[in-house]
Amino acid sequence: MLRWIIRKLSIRGKIIAITMITSLVAVVVACALFIWYDVDSFKKKMKEVSDKVSELTVQIVDGEEKALVARVSYQDGIAELHLDDATAPASAAVK
Fold it and tell me: Does residue 17 contact residue 9 with C-beta atoms inside 8 Å?
């Protein structure tokens, strides 16, 4: 069937068909390369964003840990002050 169509075409038609097929292949290859490049650059960008987010998350957790340690130290200091105040009148009354 294809050979019959090719035989039926004139030289001008064959040249146009070859040019059209070549152009079509070139456009398809170019589109495939653009899509591949976009997907690859998207993956790299997402990896960079993911790395930044994980780094910032670690920094936030470290900051929260320091704040929690400071809070616990503060509460321990307050508790010691309350204990000193509670034992002071009892020791004064014993004397």
Answer: yes
Cβ neighbours for 14, distance < 8 A, ≥ 6 positions apart: 6
Q: What angle do CA 45, 49, 53 make, to 5 degrees?
A: 170
Residues 6 or more apart whose Cβ sits within 8 Å of residue 6: 14
Between the alpha carbon of residue 70 and those of residues 65, 73, 74, 75, the distances in Å are: 9, 5, 6, 9
pLDDT digits (tens, 9 = 90+) for 5-30: 888 889 998 999 999 999 999 999 99
pTM (whole model) above 0.70: no
- Which residues form the domain of 45? 2-94
Number of domains observed in the structure of the chain: 1
Amino acid at 45: K
